Amino acid sequence: MKLELESVRKSFGGVEVLHGVSLTGEGGQVVAVVGANGAGKSTLIKVLSGAHPLDSGTLLLNGERLALRNPRDGIVQGIRTVYQELSLVPELTVTENMLMGELPKKAGLIDWKAAHQRAQEILDQIGFSGIDPHAKTRQLSVAKQQMVEIAKSLVAEPRILILDEPSAVLAGSDLDALFALVRKLTAGGTLVIYISHRLVEVLELADKIIMMKDGATIAELEPAKTNEDEMIHLMAGRKVDQIYPTRREDFGQALLRVDHLARPGEFEDISLQVRAGEVVGLFGLVGSGRSELAETVFGARRPVGGQINLGGQPLRARTPKAALRRRMALVTEDRGHTGLVLGMSVRDNVILATMKGPLLRMRRASARAAQRIEQLSIKPADCAARPVWQLSGGNQQKVVLAKWLEVAPQVLLLDEPTRGVDMATRIDIYRMVDSLARSGMGILLISSDLTEAIGASDRLLVMREGTMAAELDPASVTEEEVLAYSIGTPT
Ligand SMILES: Nc1ncnc2c1ncn2[C@@H]1O[C@H](COP(=O)(O)OP(=O)(O)OP(=O)(O)O)[C@@H](O)[C@H]1O
Ligand SMILES: [Mg+2]
User: Is the model's pLDDT at 98 over the cut of 90?
Assistant: First the structure.
């Protein structure tokens, strides 16, 4: 099986986003597509899946020309896609989402028993743990939803499987399961197209790497003959000497103190401190309770017991509003639901949290937004008036960050701030976190990216199944040790 995309062009509203992109792949291969945020990766795979009809160029499968008008056409050809934005129907169960349109029937009626069984079988085959086929998908964490999306694409064995940032929210054994799955599918002759900003992962998995920049393919690389530094250099057009800034050393008083906080079923007896000038890392696998903890500290969930102190004073009113008034902000991992209003402009999203009624003048709002767009290099540079949904995934993430920086918080809770963000911009974010800390802010950095959790923090907390499993010195700890604490097998 051979796939050939040639000279593909695609415009949105008169603006050309893909300028003649070409890509080839064969059954049994993993072809990785890498590039900075906004480079055009997702647009390219949407052309390939049928979600965006191409403007010009050709798409050949085994030498035959395909004209895909919609994703259905793609599916008929055996092309399955896991999009970057999750697309499950929240009110439906895991089984309904996975088997939508293909639910087994008996005597004209849906055979639910067989359906749940089939869904469970697929999940088990992949090795994704702890997902109940009967659960409504809205009850699942972002990571579990991602697993369901992947499982859904495997209901019929695909000829071509496209994965757009599948690993951004996975860690530990679930990430291993994903890799094993990719290897199994390619061994069976499937072509896997794999998009990721985690370059180490790409180097490990791919047979070849296609690099995109500004809507064009600029290089084809062989994993054995390149490395992370070279790839970042090619993508960003600049050399990086160091990914993480040096650790900070001078800390002030505790800005945030959490004592014995609990929400039964989510987490128990959690105590922690974040001092002025300090970046405290919080690592934990899916289900460890880290995001629930952050949301509770911020007031978006109600604790059952425990105290929170901010700047030495107890925080009694437990609402996000009260937290914001006391200058504590939370950057959430789920940008689509809690971070952004997708239909509103980038400018309005940036000033949303600080807006005090209609009084904030347009001109000032525009100036504030323009400054953040530049600071975080949000692309395209003229995006201020555009609705956020038009931005690429990583750039949406930067808008979330911009919005909370506007609050000028004293304590900043960052939940997966670099999810879906390209390496060069990640480095910028680490620099920014560093300079915020050095200016006296206290930062809690929640991450399921082990390298990041260790590299960017001054002190590292590890959560496991709702409890605080360890406090470690990131300067001397290894990835294996941290992982062992997070799964409960420290030696
Ligand atoms: N529907 C749309 N309307 C207008 N512009 C769009 C649309 N979809 C994408 N774009 C623009 O196309 C460009 C490429 O976006 P794309 O989502 O393909 O980037 P990407 O490489 O996937 O980035 P990321 O790593 O952030 O996911 C961006 O500038 C984006 O704003
Ligand atoms: Mg994308």
Answer: yes
Q: For residue 408, is pLDDT > 90?
A: no
Q: Could you check whether 2-236 and 254-327+409-487 share the same CATH topology?
A: yes
What is the CATH superfamily name and number for domain 2-236? P-loop containing nucleotide triphosphate hydrolases (3.40.50.300)
| Domain regions of the chain by residue span | 2-236, 254-327+409-487
Contact 207, 45 (CB under 8 A): no
> What are the pocket residues of ligand 1 if the criterion is a CB atom closer than 6 Å to any ligand atom?
12, 17, 35, 37-43, 84, 379-380, 390-395, 422
- Residue 339 Cα to ligand 2 middle (Å): 18
Q: How many angstroms is it from 424 CA to the middle of ligand 1?
A: 17
Please choose from 45, 392, 429 the residue to mutate so as to test ligand 1's pocket, defined by most ligand atoms within 8 A of CB: 392
**pLDDT at residue 296 is higher than 60:** yes
- Residue 18 C-alpha to ligand 1 middle, in angstroms? 10
The pLDDT tens digits for 38-81 are: 899 999 999 999 999 999 999 999 999 999 999 999 999 999 99
pLDDT tens digits for range 412-458: 999 988 888 888 888 888 988 998 999 999 999 999 888 899 999 99
From residue 28, alpha-carbon distances to 115, 306, 330, 486 in Å are 30, 54, 43, 34
Say yes or no to pLDDT of 238 above 80.
no
Residue identifier of the C-alpha nearest atom 12 of ligand 1: 17
How is domain 254-327+409-487 classified at the CATH fold level?
Rossmann fold (3.40.50)
CA 245 and chain centroid, separation: 22
pLDDT band at 360 (very low <50, low <70, confident <90, very high): low
225-233 long-range Cβ contacts below 8 angstroms, 24+ apart: 227/203, 228/199, 228/200, 228/203, 228/423, 231/34, 231/199, 231/423, 232/199, 232/423, 232/424
